[in-house]
Structures are given as structure tokens and as C-alpha cells.
Request: fold
Amino acid sequence: MIERIDLRFFKCFHDLALPLSRLTLLSGVNSSGKSSVLQALALLHQTMREHEWSAGLMLNGATLKAGSVADVVDQVHGRRSFGIALVWNGRTFGWEFGGERSEMYMKAERVTLDGRAGKGSQKLQHLLPLKFHKEGEELVRCVRDLTYLTAERIGPRDVHPLDDRQNAMVVGTCGEDAASLLHSGRDEQALEGVLIEGTQPTRLPQAEAWMRRFFPGFSLALEQLPRMSAVSLGFRTSDDTDFHRPTHVGFGLTQVFPIVVAGVSASKGDLIMIENPEVHLHPSGQALMGEFLAALASAGVQVVVETHSDHVLNGIRRSVKARSLAAEDTALYFFRQRRENEPQVVSTRLRSDGSVVEWPDGFFDQIDKDTSHLLGWDE
Reply:
């Protein structure tokens, strides 16, 4: 498990040290740096996955198009470089990347393990000098194979591409490979710890069962099209109707589908990062999403989620109260706009009864503020 991520001069951060837990929730105002934390990991993932022998960081690829050096270096304190460090099993792996501000590639100027640098001229594989590979083998696997689902997930599609498992190992940043991944792995064992009792423990029936919890009456039809490298996807929300094309059902189904597929297809030790899992979901569905994410974390998957939903938070709190997830396996952060002499990120935590130890101002308290205003309590 990644125990901490450190960012220096990356995007809006001057110097950030962010401990991560089994389930980490990032919240806060818009444009305060939540997505930047995920993007730092996504850039490492992208380079390890697409350019195994790269001598530096690829800013633009299939996972993320970050632009140029000027777009990713802190505009206030940075110049032409930034640093990322990951703590894994007590060991700190660090990178310093640099480049001209107009470039779309950043050379790995320094790679360290617990502060000890590899030789500058040494060849890198998966962004690590060969001398660090034994210590970094598990970290590389975690980062290279992580799942990153952005907030811009694809909407309803009748037909989805069917790709080789080597290419479609995860659901894709927009969920574009979810149908392909589920079809190719339909008969494989689903993640233990999230199995729904009374349902066959393979991925397809488990994904369908979880979708049914979000959308009662849900059924799924997933079929390969004859003589085509594509699959058709059909949904229905009642046994009394036939299967519908996804374009004829609500957006909520297509937004939840890749999250569920990623979850049941995960393995213990995997890392899943999700932006705004609550999109197009009713509040009760958002709370259930929090419970699903908590179940993944309890099953041994590391989950980092960015959300604006107090219902997702409350679903996690309910899981902690029910002892489905230990309070110490959660981390809660509230991000604010950078101001002088004020912390940019405020942390809080959960008690074993699901209550929040301390509510930072602005941390899912808008309902209380609006209620006070409407009742005249704040006058």
C-alpha cells in the first residue's frame, strides 16, 4: 500500500506530504488541488505503463494529457522542475523531474530510495534504476497497474470495443474498456470481500448483483457481436421489460457500471482512484457508493476517491459504524485555496462509531449553514 505521497512544486502545491490510508477521501472547494494528487500518480502510471524504458516522465498519453512543463510546475514557487515521492512499506522512492517550460516531457534528473540517489547516467526501467528494482518491484506493479477513473466517464453506448486483455487490463480512465474487461473476465473469480452471498462468485454475476443493489430490478446483457471485435451492452431495470439499449436508460447506470466492474475485477493490493463517483446518482445511491468503496478497502484494495458528496462520506461512515471497515483504515482531507500562513490541506478522521472527530469549516457543512440561514440562527 502507498502510505504517503509527497509533492513539491507540482501544480498548485509548494510542498505537500499527504498520508494515504486503505480508503482516502479527498474533498474541498473547486480548483484546490484534489485532482492534482490523483494526476501525480496517474503520470507515474502512464509512463510506467506506456514507456517502460523512458528516461523521464511522459506528460501526455492515453491516461492523462497534462500539457507542457509550464502546466504542471507550480507557477508561484517552481521554475522548471517538480518532485514526487511515494512511501511504500516504509521505504521512500523519490523522483525529481525537470524540463524546459515549453516541453511535453520531463527528464528524471534524480531518482532516490530513502534519500540515496541512483547514478544519473543509469538506465531506468519503470522509472527506477535497475539497482532499486528489487526494493521497488511491488510499488511498480501497484502504480503501473492502477485504475484511474476520471469524472468524465463515457455516457450511454450501444456498442463497446472488445480489446485484448494486455491492452484492456483495467476499465480505462473514462470507463471505455469496462465492457471489454467484464466480458473477457466474466468467468474469473471476483474480488473476495465484496462477494454478494447467494450469487455465483465470478465477475459477471457479481457485477450484475452489485448493479442491482444500486438499481433494483437491474439485469445485464453482455454479448460479443458476430465477426466483430466489439460487444453489445443491454440494461433493464425490471423483469417485466425487455433489455434496453443504454441510450434509453438513465445516465446513472452508465456512470456506476465502470466503478462496479473495476471493483469486482480488482485484486488484493490493487490501487483504484476515482473522481466524483456520485455523478448522476440519487442520494441513496451515493450513500451506497460510499459503502461499496468501503467494502473494496476492507477487501484489501487501496481506494483514493475525490468527491463533493456528503452522502458518499456518510456511506463510508455507516460502514465504519457497522465494523465493515476499521476507522483507522480511513483518511479524510479537506482542500482549500492556497493562502499565506494557512494550511492548504486540513485532515480529520473518523471514530469507530462513524462520527467525524473534527469538522473543518467548509467540510460538508453547507446544509447546516443553509439551515441556520433559513431559520435566522446566523443573523
Remarks:
- The chain has a mean pLDDT of 91.
- The two ends are 48 Å apart (CA to CA).
